[in-house]
């Protein structure tokens, strides 16, 4: 099968399209022929091994896996003898190691049936960004109907889902984005859209029950001004390209400061990393089938153009998701 591979950490130039073996199918695994995949900031972090904390997970000197990519959608080709939920021919979406390829074999809990009204490209855009938005709002942010929510970074992959999910959960949503994305953010359900090139939302006087921070543009002190007295700030970390991402020291110092501030204030400050689960894939599928969420797809690339796709994503200006059409 064809797959995008790498033999070390570095820029997109180190990636190559190679012919490798189709992965073996374990007793609890599902072999999926991938039809589409999507990119996340996670992918270029894994590619470059930045910040340093990434290498503690992926391999200190060299990556443990040659393959890259996580989000995918496709058709079940084969299943292990212990698999209960799937059979060959079913259309699924989910996540795995090495989605920039023609096949993956992963445990069945990594997949859910594709939303009935979605294309493969739309379904592939859902997993990581959708779950990050969902868990950031629902779990870390403790979002309740009737609350006010500000999404900082509302036009990106996570942000476009966050605006829609917050609206679906009954919140009044404000989205922060650039001038060219104001109408997009409003169209996704934001009651208010703030142009960060013209206005600093932390100095506007407005206060929010929950701020979901994806863009990482302000200090903790700045965000406090925009939080309600018992509001919650949930930070999903920086998502910009190389030179913009938070380093390990910044992440650790930010976590310590957030913990101290939370102890000294009724406001809560949380650094959050999503946990991919089958249960929340099902939640996303249900929201999609109810037409409460739909992916915003900026560009679609062919499999051999993954290096170009990552370079584009790293620039930090993608509107919604960047997708790879695999077959």
Structure commentary:
The structure is a single chain. By secondary structure, the chain is α/β, with parallel strands linked by helices. Helix content is 29%, strand content 26%. The protein has ten helices and 15 strands. It has helices spanning 41-48, 53-58, 120-124, 127-140, 157-168, 182-187, 220-226, 248-264, 278-289, 306-314; strands at residues 2-5, 16-19, 29-38, 71-79, 91-95, 103-107, 111-113, 148-152, 172-177, 192-195, 208-213, 227-235, 268-271, 297-302, 321-325. Strands 3, 4, 5, 6, 7, 14 and 15 form a seven-stranded mixed beta sheet that branches. The longest helix has 17 residues, at 248-264. The chain is globular and about 60 Å long. The termini are close together. Mean pLDDT is 93; it is low at 238-253.
What would the keywords be for this entry?
alpha/beta, 15 strands, 26% strand, six-stranded parallel beta sheet, seven-stranded mixed beta sheet, 327 residues
Largest sheet: 7 strands, mixed
Distance N to C terminus: 12 Å
Estimated share of beta-strand residues: 25-35%
Give Rg in angstroms: 19 Å
Task: Quickly count the helices.
Answer: 10
H/E element sequence: EEEHHEEEEHHEHEHEEHEHEHEHE
* Strands, total number: 15
Helix content range of the residues, please? 25-40%
- Structural class of the helices, strands and pairings? alpha/beta
Overall geometric form: globular
Average residue-wise pLDDT? 93
Low-confidence runs of at least 5 consecutive residues: 238-253
């Amino acid at each position: 099968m064809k797959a995008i591979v790498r033999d070390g950490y570095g820029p997109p130039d180190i990636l190559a399209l190679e012919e490798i073996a189709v992965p073996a199918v374990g007793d609890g695994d599902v072999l999926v022929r991938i039809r589409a995949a999507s990119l996340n900031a996670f992918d270029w972090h894994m590619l470059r091994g930045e910040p340093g904390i990434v290498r503690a997970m992926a391999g200190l000197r060299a990556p443990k896996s040659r393959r890259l990519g996580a989000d995918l959608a496709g058709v079940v080709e084969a299943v292990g003898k212990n698999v209960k939920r799937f059979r060959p021919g079913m259309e699924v979406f989910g996540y795995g190691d090495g989605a920039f390829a023609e096949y993956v074999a992963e445990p069945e809990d990594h997949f859910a049936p594709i939303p009935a009204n979605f294309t493969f490209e739309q379904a592939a855009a859902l997993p990581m960004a959708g779950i990050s938005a969902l868990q950031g709002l629902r779990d870390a942010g403790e979002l309740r109907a009737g609350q006010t929510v500000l999404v900082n970074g509302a036009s990106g992959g996570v942000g476009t889902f966050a605006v829609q999910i917050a609206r679906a959960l009954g919140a009044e949503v404000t989205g922060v984005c650039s001038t060219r994305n104001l109408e997009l953010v409003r169209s996704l359900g934001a009651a208010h859209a703030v142009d960060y090139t013209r206005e600093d939302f932390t100095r506007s006087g407005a206060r929010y029950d929950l701020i979901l921070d994806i863009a990482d543009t302000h200090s903790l002190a700045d965000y406090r001004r925009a939080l309600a007295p018992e509001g919650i700030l949930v930070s999903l970390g920086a998502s910009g390209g190389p030179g913009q991402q938070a380093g390990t020291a910044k992440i650790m110092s930010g976590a310590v400061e957030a913990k101290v501030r939370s102890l000294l204030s009724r406001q809560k400050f949380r650094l959050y990393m999503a946990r991919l689960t089958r249960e929340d894939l099902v939640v996303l599928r249900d929201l999609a089938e109810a037409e409460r969420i739909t992916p915003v797809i900026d560009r679609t690339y062919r499999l051999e153009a993954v290096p170009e796709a990552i370079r584009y994503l790293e620039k930090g200006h993608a509107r919604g998701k960047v997708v790879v059409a695999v077959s």
